[in-house]
Automatic annotation (TrEMBL):
<dbReference type="Pfam" id="PF25075">
    <property type="entry name" value="DUF7799"/>
</dbReference>
<protein>
    <recommendedName>
        <fullName>DUF7799 domain-containing protein</fullName>
    </recommendedName>
</protein>
<dbReference type="GO" id="GO:0019898">
    <property type="term" value="C:extrinsic component of membrane"/>
</dbReference>
<dbReference type="GO" id="GO:0005085">
    <property type="term" value="F:guanyl-nucleotide exchange factor activity"/>
</dbReference>
<dbReference type="GO" id="GO:0005737">
    <property type="term" value="C:cytoplasm"/>
</dbReference>
<feature type="domain" description="DUF7799">
    <location>
        <begin position="83"/>
        <end position="166"/>
    </location>
</feature>
<keyword id="KW-0344">Guanine-nucleotide releasing factor</keyword>
<dbReference type="InterPro" id="IPR056701">
    <property type="entry name" value="DUF7799"/>
</dbReference>
<dbReference type="InterPro" id="IPR051336">
    <property type="entry name" value="RhoGEF_Guanine_NuclExch_SF"/>
</dbReference>
């Protein structure tokens, strides 16, 4: 390994300095310069390693966001063919809220990680020679482009979520109307139709007056309906 070679070389230089007093200053300067250069290289490599690790974290979180969006869209599509009678509205609304919460959390994590990566690249770029600044500029541009695309995707998801929220809200209204219609049909079957089809005239005047009162009440209710 290069580290072993450098260590051996510095040791030999130290020995030579000890043996050759006349070259003391020269060898000391050379050894010191090499040691500093090696330390600087290791610092740069460490910075590069950290940068790559951070880039992996950013892209991993960004992919997680896309997976979250795709999962939500698949669920949105299922609403169009769902049999709402088999699923309570409370569960649907809870699931809808959960998709939004999880997706926006993934979006925020992506933006935060992307911003950290961008700042890291800029910090490292400030340490390199101006002749090599083009690589820093290109890297920053690419990250900013990815963050811009991410923002577009998040806004698109928000619009889709709002549209599907309206679908659920419309279904609530339809369910309420259906419930009222079912009640009317139930009344028609149990009260209205049975009375209108009845030929019962009773046995006495009191019976007839009672039946007449029932009929008037049904007529009054039917007019309200």
């Amino acid at each position: 390994a290069k580290q072993d070679n450098i260590t051996e070389l510095l040791t030999r230089a130290d020995d030579l300095v000890t043996q050759q007093k006349s070259y003391n200053e020269v060898y000391e300067a050379m050894a010191r310069s090499l040691g500093e250069a090696w330390k600087e290289l290791n610092l740069q490599l460490e910075g590069r390693r950290n940068l790559l690790n951070q880039a992996i974290r950013f892209h991993t979180i960004a992919v997680r966001f896309i997976d979250q969006v795709n999962g939500a869209r698949s669920w949105f599509s299922s609403l169009e063919q769902a049999n709402f009678d088999n699923k309570s509205l409370n569960i649907l609304f809870d699931e809808h809220d959960a998709y939004r919460k999880e997706t926006l959390e993934a979006s925020l994590n992506t933006l935060n990680e992307g911003q950290l990566l961008l700042e890291h690249v800029k910090d490292l770029g400030s340490l390199i020679e101006s002749a090599n600044q083009h690589s820093t500029i290109a890297a920053c541009y690419e990250i900013e482009q990815l963050l811009g695309l991410h923002q577009d995707e998040r806004r698109k998801f928000e619009d889709e979520w709002e549209r599907n929220r309206k679908i659920l809200s419309d279904y609530v209204q339809m369910s309420e109307i259906k419930h009222e219609i079912d009640q009317i049909f139930d009344w028609l079957e149990k009260q209205g139709k049975s009375n209108s089809d009845s030929t019962d005239l009773g046995q006495t005047l009191d019976d007839i007056e009672r039946l007449q009162m029932i009929h008037r009440n049904i007529e009054a209710e039917s007019q309200v309906i």
